[in-house]
Amino acid sequence: MVNFSLKSQELGRMLETNITKSTFQFLKSLQKNNNRDWFAEHKKQFNAENEATRSFFGHLLELLSAHDEIERLKVFRIYRDVRFSKNKTPYKNSFSASYARAGLHRRGGYYVHLEPGNSFIATGFWNPEKDDLLRIRKEWELDVSELEQIINKPQFKKVWGPLTGDELKTAPKGFDKEDPNIDFIRKKQFVFTRKFTDAEVLSDNFAQEINTSFKIIRPYFDLMSSILTTNLNGESLLD
Fold it and tell me: What angle do CA 238, 183, 195 make, to 5 degrees?
């Protein structure tokens, strides 16, 4: 069952299919005036842009749900947690949301970040748990050919570019630094990112571009889901 992070009354009307100029104008103004007094004076505008953006995220959820099982849409709050941060500005300069796939056999997730001059989508595995990370590394130690076949396809590379994420400078403990697959084994994250210009975000086909991009990632998700739900002998861990 999909868990919408939208008010129930929003689901009964037409969802926003585009991001508008006014949304980015508000975020640009917020970036220049990131303080509580300014925000309070412009709270009505924030509420309107926040509602429109949440509606857009709901529209994207409908698109994704046509080809994937989505368990939860989470729309992130604009308020920053400054307790442990050197940056004490109280608000984010962006709107963002994540989409969690449903079921233990579906791994990976989707993320959308809307910010003037820094909009992007991301997908993959941000911080795998210790056991999952070891399982992935053990798989790459055996063979990376299927992974390389997927991520080196021209259409995949054109949309997503290379595999990114934090990595170790050398081999993790228990692995050979001379392993021919060490460039994959030493990774700690397995992420793909696609950036968008402001003009692309404000175009009429932005939601479709996101949806198409996430469709293209599916073979990668299918492979990783298979790895993370089986042992090295290919036996299911879900039974």
Answer: 85
Q: Using the Cα atoms of residue 144, residue 150, residue 154 and residue 159 in order, give the sign of their dihedral.
A: negative
Helix (H) or strand (E) holding 27: helix 21-32
The tokens for 136 are 């992935």
Please report where in the chains the tokens 């998700």 appear, as a residue. 221
SS (H, E, C) 143-201: CCHHHHHHHCCHHHHHHHCCCECCECCCCCCCCCCCCCCHHHHCECCEEEEEEECHHHH
Q: Are 50 and 95 in contact (CB under 8 A)?
A: yes
Type of residue numbered 29 = S
Q: Is 121 helix (H, G, I), strand (E, B) or coil?
A: strand
Query: pTM for this structure?
Result: 0.91
Using alpha carbons, select from 115, 114, 97, 120 the residue that is nearest to residue 196: 120
Angle formed at CA 81 by CA 79 and CA 83, multiple of 5 degrees: 145
Number of C-beta neighbours around residue 19 at 10 A: 21
**Residue 122 is inside which H or E element, if any?**
strand 119-125
Could you read off the pLDDT of 15-61 as tens digits, one per residue?
Answer: 889 999 999 999 999 999 999 999 999 999 999 999 999 999 999 99
Q: Is 42 helix (H, G, I), strand (E, B) or coil?
A: coil
Placement of tokens 């995220």 in the chain: 57
Count the alpha carbons within 13 Å of 29 in the hemisphere toward its beta carbon. Answer: 14
Cα Rg for the chain, rounded, in angstroms? Answer: 20
Q: What is d(CA 66, CA 69) in angstroms, rounded to the nearest whole number? A: 8
What are the two backbone dihedrals, phi and then psi, of residue 155, each rounded to the nearest 5 degrees? -65, -40
User: 54: helix, coil or strand?
Assistant: helix
